[in-house]
Amino acid sequence: MNFKYMDMAIEEAKKAYEEDEVPVGCVIVKNNQILAMTHNMKEQMKSATKHAEILAIEEASFKIDNWRLDGCDVYITLEPCPMCASALKQARVSNIFCGLSNSDSKNYEIVLKILSPDKNNASVTIVNDLAVEKVNRIMKDFFKNRRNS
């Protein structure tokens, strides 16, 4: 775990905020080399699948010319949704570090089941709540402004 990469994910989340996207940022790293830095783009790209994690997987895979992201660490400002957790597992990342847990406690249970080992894939380690104050402030401000609009 390297807080430098979490701070970079937070900067990506701020970009999403400025673009009126839910402020989630993601950074994928392997051997201290950044393979991807992205943020949510669902509104801009008009696609439900354009979450920060999905975009980061695509960018990292393109960069290394391989869909397998073995040995990669993923830094996300918010705990992944089930779709993104599944994509991260399928990409074979090693570790997921999250700035903030999802406010829906059921999400964590589902994500843990997805990330656990199965017949085809190894497990993925997930660690939550590594930057709670920073990420929570951005999320609260975003949704407060959205309600006031």
Task: Describe what is shown at a glance.
47% of the residues lie in helices and 19% in strands. By secondary structure, the chain is an alpha/beta fold.
Task: Describe this entry's structure for a reader.
- There is one protein chain.
- By secondary structure, the chain is α/β, with parallel strands linked by helices.
- The chain has six helices and five strands.
- It has a five-stranded mixed beta sheet.
- The radius of gyration is 14 Å and the shape is globular.
- The mean pLDDT is 94.
The percent range for strand residues is 15-25%
The main β sheet shows up as: 5 strands, mixed
Q: Please identify the structural class as seen in this structure.
A: alpha/beta
- Separation of the first and last Cα atoms: 37 Å
Classify the helix fraction into a percent range: 40-55%
Widest β-sheet, arrangement of strands: 2-1-3-4-5
Instruction: State the helix count.
Output: 6
Low-confidence stretches: none
Q: Count all strands and give the number.
A: 5
Mean pLDDT: 94
- Write down the overall geometry: globular
Taking all Cα atoms into account, the compactness measure Rg is 14 Å
Topology as H/E string?
HEEHHEHEHEH
